[in-house]
Amino acid sequence: MPVPSQIPRHIAIIMDGNGRWAKERGLPRRAGHRAGADAVGHVVDACQELKVGYLTLYAFSSENWKRPAGEVKSLMKLLERFLKEKTSEMDERGVRLQAIGRLKDLPESCQQQLHEAVERTRSNTGLTLILALSYGGREEIIDGIKSVIHHVREGHLDVGMLDPDVFAKHLYTRYYPDPDLLIRTSGEMRVSNFLLWQISYAEMYITKTLWPDFRKEELLAAVTDYAARSRRFGGI
Ligand code: FPP
Questions:
Q1: Which of 3-7, 68-72, 80-84, 186-190 is predicted least confidently?
Q2: What's 163-204 look like in SS3?
Q3: Atom of ligand 1 nearest to the CA of 33
């Protein structure tokens, strides 16, 4: 497949279908998550090749805490192992790792690994990989409102100056451009509390492929589809 004519600057992905992938194979759900973590590696490589600037992955939502304790624990362990095993390689390849969400909710050891990975890769200039962890779009907006109130009370912000650009500076994503392309795997047609503010003008691409099977070819198909669309941002 040829390189698409337009590469999105920022791709966001709702990685869905790990459980179904495992079920189809008669495996425990954690095996699906493990295969999902392997797919992350493939997609990071593909984004680097395509020179995508930012990749945000919905790795653990605010709602995911409601899953059985055993599954939550195995997801946290997997995240920790991913950070431990992949940070050196990502660093060598120039990837800058970042995270958004209520990170203080994560287990201490996870926060520590995350902190090390972020610090180690801080000055890299290749792909920025943003992991959304204990992340919820509504929670982010609430945290943004609290930040605005704090700034107003401290006299650093005049309420009359509040507009979408100013508010965006109070979100977790203040350092990144909005996603251009939102991908969801496993065929579900939902946004599921992901980047609610930021996806206002994102193009959506939904594929039936389950996340553990997602590879470079599928990413290329999504980007090729994106490149063929005309984005008008409400204009004509
Ligand atoms: C959805 O599958 C996926 C998740 C809840 C979490 C995503 C996590 C990973 C891809 C693995 C770890 C990630 C990193 C960055 C190391 P599901 O369990 O909802 O699947 P189902 O809808 O088929 O049950």
A1: 3-7
A2: CHHHHHCCCCCCCCCCCCEEEECCCCCCCCCCCCCCCCCCEE
A3: 11
pLDDT confidence of residue 1: 66
**Ligand 1 atom at minimum distance from 29 CA:** 18
- Give tens-digit pLDDT for 78-101: 999 999 999 999 999 999 999 999
Alpha carbon of 149 to ligand 1 centroid (Å): 35
Instruction: Enter the pTM of the model.
Output: 0.96
> In testing the pocket of ligand 1, which one of 13, 14, 15, 81 has its CB within 8 Å of the most ligand atoms?
15
Chain position carrying tokens 């593909």:
46
| CATH fold of 10-136+178-227 | Undecaprenyl pyrophosphate synthetase (3.40.1180)
In total, the chain counts a number of residues equal to 236
| DSSP code for 63 | G
From the CA of 36, how far away is ligand 1's center (Å)?
6
Residues tagged active-site: 16, 64
Q: What is the pLDDT of residue 65?
A: 98
